[in-house]
Design brief:
single chain; ten-stranded mixed beta sheet; 10 helices; 34% helix; 315 residues
């Protein structure tokens, strides 16, 4: 996720009727399911929009097997740049955190530098896959309800905000950890250009030219869609860039990048939060010190927001 700022399975239909996917003509469908433990599994989803099979990790609700007719709220966890769908279970204790939860936790792949968008260049089409294909599929195959939250970090935090903003009312709760929130901020534009170039990507392929295609950029800019969040509780958090005990053992180059990537965020997040509140959007913020652009702090933040997530989803 730091790069963002510089930037044989078991057939699903064979699972004894637990969640046999309903395949509609041309719809996304589950190709394989691999059980990791009694509640965690990986599925491979064929996406017509992506013309590819995309991995998704799922943690089942505590009562998913015993309450076979129930529908469950859904928490989508979005990973950061230069990472994948395994990151939340690899780097945090989300499985333990959800041990007594009745929420369905869905962790889809979003591409190492996919920006959670349908690219201006014509593909990939991450937003269409996640919103138009995966959300309905989770409802059909896993009994996901319309009570949803989306939480992301870094690039995934940006994804959480644009998904909630571009699809008003789809998510009751959206949390962005250590995420840029204003594409018009010069520091953000520079970071995106440098980071995408480092990964061999032209940022103009994602949203077009920042000037000639400013309408496309605006349509993907959280700061430009403030009123769209009125039906969503928004939580924003970031550190101040200073390092602490949680950063011990990190190499100087990695520490430098994680410091620089974080210190630029509180100012723009504070401005965005103020704009949200001025429009009556339920908004909470958490600015912490120390705090670099790294997993130990995001793990702490996940624990901090979890009570609110569960409370809002159960309303």
């Amino acid at each position: 996720m730091l790069a963002l700022f510089l930037t044989a399975g078991i057939p699903a239909h064979a699972r004894a009727g637990e969640n046999a996917p309903q395949r509609a003509g041309g719809a996304a469908h589950i190709v394989t399911t691999r059980k990791i433990d009694h509640r965690t599994q990986d599925i491979q989803v064929y996406s017509p929009a992506m013309r590819a099979t995309i991995p998704v990790r799922i943690i089942l609700p505590k009562s998913w097997k015993s309450k076979r007719n129930a529908r469950f709220p859904v928490v989508y966890l979005l990973h950061g740049g230069d990472d994948d769908y395994t990151s939340w279970t690899r780097e945090t204790d989300v499985e333990d955190l959800a041990r007594h939860s009745e929420a369905l936790i869905v962790m889809p792949d979003g591409g190492r530098n996919g920006y959670y968008s349908d690219w201006f260049a014509g593909g990939p089409r991450w937003e269409t896959f996640h919103i138009r294909e995966l959300v309905p599929l989770i409802g059909r195959a896993y009994r996901g309800s319309s009570s949803r939250a989306v939480i992301g970090l870094s690039m995934g935090g940006f994804g959480a905000l644009i998904y909630a903003g571009r699809h008003p009312g789809m998510f009751r709760y959206a949390a962005a950890m250590s995420s840029y929130v204003d594409l018009t901020d010069p520091s953000v534009l520079l970071a995106l250009q440098l980071g995408s170039r480092r990964e061999g990507i032209d940022i103009r392929d994602v949203w077009g030219d920042p000037v000639a295609n400013r309408d496309v950029w605006k349509a993907h800019n959280p700061a430009s869609m403030v009123t769209s969040f009125r039906r969503t509780h928004v939580h924003l958090s970031a550190g101040d860039g200073s390092h602490g005990a949680a950063d011990r053992g990190r190499t100087p180059d990695v520490l430098l990048v994680s410091k620089v990537a974080e210190w630029m965020l509180p100012r723009q997040i504070s401005k965005f939060a103020a704009a949200l509140r001025s429009e009556g959007v339920s908004t909470t913020t958490h600015f912490y010190r120390p705090g670099t652009h790294s997993w130990p702090y995001w793990q702490q933040e996940l624990h901090a927001v979890w009570p609110d997530v569960t409370r809002i989803l159960e309303r």
